[in-house]
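Case study 2.
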Amino acid sequence: MATSIPPLKPYLIRAIYDWCVDCGFTPHLAVQVNEATQVPREFVRDGQIVLNISPVATHRLVLGEREIKFEARFGGKPYSVVIPMGAVIAVFARENGQGLAFAADAESAETSPQAEQTSLGPEADQPFSPDKPGEKVQKRSSHLTRIK
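Prediction:
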């Protein structure tokens, strides 16, 4: 009897979200918008949208296994937002850009844990720019030296 392993991505998103909130940072989601994504289209740029998902900015936030749902105001108007898990391309802290990046393949990201794990390659730990969401920050070499 084969048991089904739940997808890793929702757990990672919840972990980064909790870390952001615990540290006093503002958690953000970068989302690849497609036909299944319910977001205010007037705020979509180049097929993507960056959303503030902090407790102050959202109401009824649910970080589920298959989708993320919440209510928020955009330009003063209330919206119900629904994001399929496969559309999430990054979760990060606005203040320092630290977080994780994912592949934006809705079908393979939801059904294949292997696809999720391989998408978290060496670039995944590279922070996003808080000023330009979606752009990577240049990685600096460490100032620490190893002492034996």
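The two ends are 50 Å apart (CA to CA).
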